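Forgive a beginner's question, but would it be possible to get a protein, spelled out as residues, together with the matching structure tokens, please?
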Amino acid sequence: MKPGGYLIISEGSYNGSGGDGGLNFIFGTLPGWWLGADQGRTLSPYLSTGEWDQLLRITGFSGIDVAPPKEFADTFGVSVFVSQAVDDQVSFLRNPIGMPSLGSPIQNLVLIGGLTPRSSHLVEGLQKILSTSIEEIHHFGALEDVDYSIIDQQTMVVSLTELDKSVFRNMTAVTISAFKQMFETGKTLLWVTSGRLEDQPYSNLTLGFGRTALVETPDLRLQQLDLADPQAIDPLLIAQTLLRFASVVPETVVWTVEPEIIVDAAGREFVPRLKPISTFNDRYNSSMREIKQLINTNESAITLEMTEHSCTAKELAAPHRFSNPPEHLLDLRAVYTTPTSIKTTLGHQFLILCQEAPTEATYLALVPSLASTYRLPVASVVPFGTAKSYNAAFISLLAAHLVSIALFDTVCAGQTVVVHNATEPIATAIKAQASTRGFNLVFTADSTNTAAVELSLKLVPYLTQYELNQVLPKQISLFVGLSTSNAQRWENEMAIMSYLPPHCRKESASTIYARQGLSSSAATADVLRSALNNVSVDDPADLQWARPLTGLVDVGSLLKGALPADPLTIIDWTTCTSLPVTITRLDTQQMFGSDKTYWIVGLSAALGASLFDWMIERGARNLVFTSRRPQLDPAWIESHKGSGVRIVVIAW
């Protein structure tokens, strides 16, 4: 074992009353158990702690340094203790004052401080203890008094001046200049402070300055020692700390030079250690690799991000919650949502059925993204009874009606519309629009598509344009292709679109359904009411509940597998309370509200513009700058104005 290494020994013990855990009874029948009998161990092979201490000392160890109370061994029949491998160097480090034969590692010592009773006894004590082993000891009362001509890289400096007065408290130009000069050149420096963990925040300023100085001054050796009660500290402790720090420890010795040591009021020495904070570490590392963790959806808000082939859940930044939300806003939790944003007359939106927790009242809304919770204006939602009033099938049907209204909004009576590969419930909604608007509706379907609605014109796969001309109606104003897979599209849908003339409007699943939505507005409530009226006329209340649901998937299953083929499948948010969420950095999410105004004082030049760009990228839309001499580029302001950002500059 290298000098300085620690040996931990755990051995059975025998106290004469059977306190060996029964080992003597179990192994006493074996001859090896009695090998120590001729050495006086007649009842067991164990050594006493005194014998172990003697044995360790004669074999290159320090003896027993630490051991639990005797009652521990008596109770459990086990003796545990720690010893350290030593040589002359380690023995000196363990007790620098007790081994003067090795000589002091310090030739030139500078002591600073001693102007108040908090430090004067320490200065006097250090001079007395170290005067016999150090050739030159210089003392200065304050940093401003130090003669730097006697300080070089071989000098050891001990600063006790912060025990008299903190450098950063009521500092002057002279004080800060002297302080910086102490850290500018290479030397060995022991800096003593007090109250770092309690009543002296200024000590932490020195601590931070020292940590930075170590990086910027490569030949500086710095150790920072903080004392909870300087007047109760024995100067011997500082002298030992000083000699250990000044020693040059060879690589053959296991010894750690701590850059920071804290001595509490009880005289115990503590060293700072970094403790991992998994939440922060995961957020930081998420930019380099995918990290997932289980999130309780009742306690945290999540959002779903869809791609063509997968779905990912991410935790939203902590929402701004009020004990009582403003009257014009509602805090809602998602119950049912569509997996895709659907085409509406206001653009692509996700249809959601959500619930207000306190009242259990439910609302319908159109939103730009999928999330477990929402804060929405009252004017943008439609009250919808209670959560038990309507099932998921109704939400799917309502989504179909929203799509059909958007598709046929510009179709006039008498025009011809062809819908290919339609399934329920979209077919029902399309027929309702045909009945209301009076256009001619023709359903077609591939002969291989068994899910298509009945009465469809069946088309064998891969018809030629000549064959399509024979079977399709003439003067088609709108063609809607609803194939849900690439293989299905290539059977006939792509050929039909190629066959139709340019003036014929063409819609497909890729134009009707999307993975992202547009920002919603208050007008969404009117769109929802219109669709609800269509459902009521077409589907009487006694039939709405009986309509079979084509698909329902919970969020947990959605995260594990592929996305459902039917874009009108409904996502159930109520069944899973714990979900695997992909961790992201906070600054990748929207951090600022578009409905809030942010007031910035100063920073109205290039540096400020860079910060403001960052805020705008993360959601800020209303910014007010006040400065005595604003220097923001008008072209920069105009460029953001085109993106809907309102910037006001006020000179004062």
About this structure: The chain has 20 helices and 31 strands. The radius of gyration is 40 Å. The longest strand covers residues 329-337.
